Amino acid sequence: MKEFIRVMKALSDPNRVKILKMLSQRQLCVCEVQAGLGLAQPTVSKHLKILEDAGLVQKTKEGLWVNYRLSDGEASPYAATLLGNLKHWLNDDPEIRALLKQVPQLDRDTICSRQ
Predict the structure, then answer these.
(1) Rg (CA), the chain
(2) In CATH, what number is assigned to the domain containing residue 52?
(3) Among 12, 43, 54, 108, which residue is least crowded by beta carbons within 10 Å?
(4) Domain range for residue 65?
């Protein structure tokens, strides 16, 4: 039951749902998620950690970059089921639609050169 509650709590925050929708497009680093959502870096990192702990996202290190992507669902059947459904949910929401249009233009090199 704890695993189920962890996944559901992770999905209870709108920004975490937005992050999952962004990651359904492609893998992203923290700065790309930050730019897309307009949130502070520590806030984005906290959200990503909660999603990772719930088995919804995975991270890989590539040099100085830490890339996040949707989990393969191997760690949790609850995460796998919800991620599979989330691909089809909320696509007609105007806020999600606008966010997903931004994702292809998010470029870590451009974003980090501005900071």
Answers:
(1) 14
(2) 1.10.10.10
(3) 12
(4) 2-114
